[in-house]
UniProtKB/TrEMBL annotation:
Residues 23-195 form the Cellobiose dehydrogenase-like cytochrome domain. This is CBD9-like protein. It comes from Massarina eburnea CBS 473.64. The keyword Signal applies. Residues 1-17 form the signal peptide.
Length: 214
């Protein structure tokens, strides 16, 4: 790895998927424990300090270009609550997904919602970024990590190809070109400012997801 790589600030591109590390989004000011991938993909989590009974987190997900980025809140692809997002011009679309088979996951319905955080959701010349309060996203049914888990494995998946119906949040996606599972040390994602940051969120998007003007 060249020295210059270490000197790059912000969402620097390293090789493959790294250990999640602290990152503060410059536009929202929210600090996440973020997983970065050499493709430009990233997924970050912010959680409250008191884990007991908490079902919510703030997520940031994005990438470079026009492809999709996804996360499995339970680590594996099958039978877990998935989140898929991609950019559409200056908008970003996000949705919940679930599947029992290794095929494009269908929209998932349940108590969970995504409420976009306006200044953490944007498309610039290099990346797209979608930041949202994920309410009731930590479920007790083994489809996600648990509130009191300390170091769960979460799954990441991405493809640089845009979905075939990129204006439709329920669009199918092509199989990932890169995927895997990464351990998140949740203690590094916890902050006493969580409630303040959660207050930045707007209204929940429709259950099927929708475009959000960043
Ligand atoms: C047409 C769409 C998709 C197909 C055909 C597909 C297929 C597969 C297959 C066959 C594997 C096993 C590893 C491999 O052989 O490559 C896998 C793993 C995985 N997939 Fe998918 N996938 C699709 C979409 C997605 C999406 C949208 C997500 C997340 C939002 C996702 C998340 C994962 C994760 C995290 C793994 C690794 C963990 C595990 O082994 O379960 N996949 N996928
Ligand atoms: C675009 O946004 C990403 C995510 O905040 C940031 O890492 C990157 O430096 C930004 N690019 C430019 C050209 O400002
Ligand atoms: C954490 O939250 C639980 C459930 O709301 C509550 O019973 C407990 O007192 C809280 N702990 C602290 C240290 O605030
Ligand atoms: C992002 O927006 C919230 C209001 O929703 C504001 O309080 C916060 O200061 C903004 N972040 C930055 C870095 O300006």
């Amino acid at each position: 790895m060249k020295l210059a790589t270490f000197l790059t600030s912000g969402l620097a591109a390293f090789t493959a998927a790294q250990t999640p590390a602290p990152y503060t989004d410059p536009k929202s000011g929210i600090t996440f424990s973020i997983l970065q991938h050499s493709s430009g993909y990233f997924f970050g989590l912010a959680l409250p300090t008191n884990a007991t009974g908490s079902t919510d987190f703030i997520a940031t997900i994005g990438g470079k270009g026009t492809g999709w980025s996804g996360v499995s809140l339970g680590g594996a692809m099958l039978g877990k609550l998935l989140i898929v997002a991609w950019p559409n011009g200056q908008s970003v679309l996000g949705s919940f997904r679930k599947t029992a088979t290794h095929a494009s996951p269908a929209i998932a319905t349940g108590p969970f919602t995504q409420s976009p955080i306006a200044n953490g959701t944007y498309v610039n010349s290099t990346h797209w970024t979608y930041t949202f309060l994920c309410s009731k996203c930590i479920q007790p049914d083994k489809t996600t990590f648990l509130p009191t888990d300390t170091s769960p494995s979460l799954g990441y998946a991405l493809n640089a190809a845009a979905p075939p119906q990129k204006t439709n949040p329920a669009s199918s996606v092509a199989k990932h070109t890169s995927q895997g599972q990464v351990v998140f040390d949740l203690s590094k994602a916890r902050s006493g400012r969580f409630e303040e940051w959660a207050g930045y969120a707007g209204v929940p998007v429709a259950k099927v997801g929708r475009g959000f003007e960043g």
